[in-house]
Amino acid sequence: MAEIKAAEVSQKKKSVLNNTAILFLILVAMFGIFSYIGRPWFFSRLNIIPMINNLSFIGIVAAVLTMVMISGEIDFSVGGNIGLTACLTAVLLERGLPGWLVVIIALAAGAAMGAFNGMLVTVIGVNSIMATIGTMFIWRGIGYTLTNGESMLAMNPVIDFIGRGFIFKVIPFPIVLLVIIFVLTYVIMNHSKWGRRIYAIGANPLASYLSGINVKRVKFIGFLLCGITASLGGLILTSLSAVGMPQHGQGLELVIVSSIILGGTVLGGGKGQILGTLAGVLILSILYNFLTIMNVYYFYIQIVQGSVLIIVVSTYEIGQAMKRRRM
């Protein structure tokens, strides 16, 4: 029996890896086609660096949110978290606090937001969709309160470096953060006991609990980390725009979740890959960037992005239905 289960798990992993490989092939094809059609602008430094910086904060949040979704939960409040972090950063800088202290306070606030979500879901038992939609509005409302609904300058050497700095004058600092977060989450999900617990909980929370896994603690820590990385994303976005305003992050929760689903993570939990999320983030970001430099209207871009997501998810569901019929 154990051998059969091991074989099933191995087969699922192979299936996910195959889907991820296909996504990266699509990504390479897109990049080649867009580089040719959009030359010379698409592959120029003036376009690539801003594109990388912009996708970095989306990717950072998506990596950790993938862990939450694999565990069977979701966090729609990340966009509100990003907006509140931007407002908090601007307000604290205006009051004269040093940049390094502002960063610490912002990340601590993110941890508090994540912990609050985790408490609602794991302690009180509120459905994660409803809980985080509620807190999304709360975080954004607090952001409006802090700034009176206005944009505020957020300029400081430390904050500036987070979103616009370079390592060795060549590598954008946001991409360094992105790589670190993805490497850490990949190692956790694929090479640690904690990652195996997350997959097990997403696949069958009751069986995981009966086997001795502290399901509530694992999920709570997932929300906590998601809150911290959302605040980190908010700091990067604030740095890139040099302003803090409550509108920051509005709608980003859907872009982030779409990237994760595009990467192969299922809403029910138990299945997904960090590398798949990376591919999903890159595909949507590159597509958005290409359509932007081709002067496509923003609302048309939204239609295209939504259509891509529907096509990919529909194809996956059709494939799964065909597999079930063969069994």
Task: Report what the structure shows.
The strands form two sheets. This protein has a two-stranded antiparallel ribbon. Strands 2-3 form a two-stranded antiparallel sheet. The chain contains 13 helices and four strands. β2 (166-167) and β3 form a beta hairpin. It is mainly alpha-helical and 327 residues long. Residues 1-10 have low confidence and may be disordered. It has a single domain, classed as ABC transporter involved in vitamin B12 uptake, BtuC, CATH 1.10.3470. Helices cover 78% and strands 2% of the residues.
Reported CATH architecture: Orthogonal Bundle
Strand order of the largest sheet: 1-4
Q: What is the approximate shape?
A: globular
Total helices: the number is 13
Helix content: over 70%
Assess the beta-strand content as a share of residues.
under 5%
Q: How many domains? A: 1
Determine the N-to-C terminus distance: 19 Å
**Low-confidence spans: pLDDT under 50, at least 5 residues?**
1-10
- The tally of beta strands, per DSSP, is 4
**Radius of gyration, whole Å:** 20 Å
Mean pLDDT: 87
Quaternary structure type:
single chain
User: What structural class is derived from the secondary structure elements?
Assistant: mainly alpha
Biggest β-sheet: count, sense, barrel? 2 strands, antiparallel
The CATH topology: ABC transporter involved in vitamin B12 uptake, BtuC
Along the chain, the helix and strand elements come as: HHHHHEHEEHHHHEHHH
What would CATH call the class?
A: Mainly Alpha
